Amino acid sequence: MDFTYSREQQMVKKMLKEFAETEIEPISAEIDEKAEYPYETVAKLGELGVMGMPFPEEYGGAGTDYLTYIMAVEEISKVDASHGVIVQTHNALCCWPIFTYGTEEQKRKFLPDLLSGKKLGAFGLTEPNAGTDAAGTQTKATDAGDHWIINGSKIFISGGGIADVYVIFAMTDKSKGTRGISAFIIEKGTPGFTAPKHENKMGIRGSIAAELVFEDCCIPKENLLGEQGKGFKIAMSALNVGRLGIAAQALGIAQGAFDKTVAYMKQRKQFGKSLDKFQGPAFEMAEMKTRIDGSRYLLYDAANRRDRGDENPAAAAEAKLACSETAMYVTTKAVQFHGGYGYIKDYPVERMFRDAKITEIYEGTSEVMKMVMDGDIFK
Amino acid sequence: MKLVVCVKQVPNTNVIQINPETGTLIREGVPSILNPDDANALEEALKVKDANPGSIVTVITMGPPQAKEMLQECIAMGADDAILLSDRALGGSDTWATSNAVAAGIRKIGDYDMIFAGRQAIDGDTAQVGPQIAEKLGVPQITYAKEFTIEGDCVIVKRALEDGYERLKVKMPCVVTAIKELNTPRYMTIRGILKGAKQEIKVWSADDIGVDKETVGLKASPTNVFKSFTPKPKGAGITVEGDTPKEKAANFVADLKAKHII
Amino acid sequence: MKDFSEYKNVWVFAEQRRGKLMNVAYELVGRGKGLAEEIGGDTKICAVLIGNKVDHLVDELYEYGADVVYVLQDELLEQYTTDAYAKVMTDAINEYKPEIVIYGATHIGRDLAPRIAARLNTGLTADCTRLDVNVANYIDYLETYTTASLTGLDRNDDSKGLKQTRPAFGGNLMATIVTPNTRPQMSTVRPGVMDKRERIPGAKGERIDVKVSIKKEDINVEILEVVKAAKEMVSLTDATIICSGGRGLGDASGFELIRAFADKVGGVVGASRAAVDAGWIEQSHQVGQTGTTVKPHIYFACGISGAIQHLAGMQTSDIIVAINKDPDCPMMHLADYAIEGDLKKVIPEIMALWDVEEAE
Known about the structure:
Strand order of the largest sheet of chain B: 11-10-9-12-8-1-6-7-13
CATH class of the largest domain in chain C: Alpha Beta
Mean pLDDT of chain C: 93
Order of helices and strands of chain B: EEEEEHEHEHEHEEEEHEHHEEH
CATH topology of the largest domain in chain C: Rossmann fold
Distance between the termini of chain C: 42 Å
Oligomer: heterotrimer
CATH class of the largest domain in chain B: Alpha Beta
């Protein structure tokens, strides 16, 4: 086991740290306040190759391994979780399914623009009545001979309305339950496809979550992704990949909040000395670091397994569970140690606390993570 | 076009701190970076390459083996080739000795159209190596470049002065030293990083570049460091004395002048 | 020890632009005269004046202390070019063999001096803030102002080598450099650091007109135009001096005073969050946690109490000057200079006494 960072990983971390601090940090408070999508910085990340990092150069990707990509998401999220999830959803939930299940034509049609960041990708699975219970999908895809007709709606879709290319899941045969769900590629601007409403969220407000509405939306037959009836499997395998990215996002939030708190405690004086000289809070910071570092190795191990061909869902679930719970724990303490200042928007930990919560919910709730782990533990 | 860029790996002196007890620099944990002015120099060369496809950008540095990391970063930004001049014989060189070595290295690269360098390094702060390399190579120099274009076989450079600028024209090859205002250096790209991490960095010794060993290294350097030290730490502030605003102002300004702060 | 007995005198490159001497030229003649005295013997302080139609500057140089003025004039020297000035200066140095040559560390000085040093294969030290020949004086400086160890230094040492002290590592470290084995010893010196002497009207010295051999073909650079530009807007992060106003200003009109102050000292206007929230100035001037983080050479905190969000944005400034009615507020405790008083009275007094060195 080699626990050192490779030269590539060192350089990726260095570049993204600099990019995040120079380009992202100055706008992070504003995009949170206004719930504005950061088009410019996302475009820059695209130019640098981050929006297609772990995919082969052949299709326009940068060709890194998954672990290095995870580190990139982590670095970005230390500064801004919204940017972290934008990068992550695009790479894992849109690019990855097309890359893994697409036909050669589909790959050549969609991947070059997606991987270069020229086009943005999104993933539409969740519905008002189908969250954790994805089998409750009601969006229908009707076979009309030479095209499909999609009817239904999706909610809480990251990048909804902003993205250009969507991987959407719809029921093609209700009688087969989850085996009746198929995956489709739908492009923005297709008649009958709208994104009327942006959600007003607690956190990651720079990442837009929207409702998608399909009203007799006609899409070409060639836009079926993978085999008919295999949609649920595609969705679950994509979420398994995405889990690592969300874990990286959560880990980044935790580390970022921790680092800000260290700086604050060294500066803030009460009772004649700086806060870091008080053993109580200082001991807790040591505990927080232990949790963060432990979560990091779970995540890096899970990502490394994927790179070695072991798509271990239990390891991915464990990593997400650990990292998201760590993010909640660390950001709560971070606000606490900032005292009243942690409660006002002048200080970034206020936002990081709100950003952290979603990591326990989306791309599989913590409860689902435990179900996946139990399935492995008690097999 | 064949473009050479002189670069240096430096400690990030913007974040460096002084140990208050010993009065020495705390060098541990200080990240090493590509010298900022050199990043501007490299960026300008890359812009010339973008406008003239087929051009080759070669970065060259004189330094310890660790400088390879910085050269990899230059490749990741878009440089094609990297050369490290590394040899015990070169250690301890002042700017004159350094310019002898780097000039010899550039002669070995040969056939160059342009040489870019940063105005000054943030550790030495001398701004001497660029002009001295130009002298050793026998080519013209333009320092403090804040704008750069190529017109035919000449370059047109806006050279910053304290109170304005000059627009100068000179035939290539020449040495141009870059300041911050020249451009905004690009980030490394992910693909560039994968390339840079793998790329073999050429290491040249003093013999490889054929430099006269009597003109490089500590002993050959005409300037020597006699002593290095830190200014006395700031200490507590002072309450400015005086009975009236006029008196206080006078005492304050006098103190600033005495300390050559203004 | 090499024999440098044929090298004599202290030379100053008397930089002139458009027929006017740079301030640093007077400063260097001032200090140069002191160096000549420290060396003793009959060491002279000589100014080297290069240009065209610059006779009117010769007397000025005598009046500021030059014993000798070498005058190098030619049409081709009217505008500075590296090639022309490097050639004539190097020729003159080779002919007259000064032991020390100092230049102002202006954009021109820092362009010219290294080229000459490389041509002469001699040592050059950049941006000196202190020059010493007399060892006892140098030891006094080290003892009073620095953390340097004094071992190996002897007050009675009467060697005449030039000790050139300068900042490095972004100003975090100081170094004293010597040039033991080559001549001349050359330095560039920061403008505004050395003191010029009192002008003695009518003072005279020796004028030596040096025949220069410079041809058009010697000059490789063509000067297309020279443009004097108005001072560009400096950003808060690049500013060397910031004049910042807070709640203590009282109202929006308080910033008129701050702006005038900034103009006078060559600074940029900053503000605390309180002032911005009160609508007295635009948010772009805000310094602090939600504004800009700054690290200027001098930070004037006028009527700013020093809330932690503000301190976070400026506490690493080199010199902090607090002007406030409340002697106990955090900013006054943090400041290097705490001036208790009414800023509306104190600031105008500071402005009246402020002497800003300009580029010409």
